[in-house]
Specification:
There is one protein chain. The protein is of the alpha/beta class.
């Protein structure tokens, strides 16, 4: 079971085309990928993933709560925050929670692949 989780990724992104593009990329890299559009759906699937690609502004809230849960519960999930937000307070809150990576939209997929390879 641990082996299967090691190659599992979850994309929490409410913009369908962005979510689908990231899912396709991760699948070509050999990851088993789920994609969801809300914080609630992301929370429900955290236990079965190793890599989380997390947008901050979602239709049912902000993604910071998911990152906070991962840190507070010490879940073994590597988190890449993906945002187009320039909200300085939100970005400061994210930095406090120490995501494993922060990607600003539009994402440079080369940087993302490099991060995955180093993880």
């Amino acid at each position: 079971m641990q082996q299967a989780i090691a190659r599992r990724a979850l994309v929490v992104e409410d913009h369908g085309p962005s979510r689908d593009a990231l899912r396709r990329l991760l699948r070509t890299l050999g990851y088993e990928v789920d994609g969801v559009a809300t914080v609630a759906e992301g929370n429900a699937r955290l236990d079965s993933t190793r890599f989380l690609f997390l947008d901050l502004r979602l239709s049912d809230g902000d993604g910071i709560g998911l990152l906070r849960r991962i840190r507070e519960e010490a879940l073994p999930v590597r988190v890449a925050v993906i945002t187009g937000s320039a909200d300085e307070q939100m970005l400061a809150d994210v930095h406090e929670l120490r995501p494993d990576a922060l990607f600003i939209k539009p994402i440079d997929f080369g940087d993302l692949v490099k991060w995955l390879e180093e993880a």
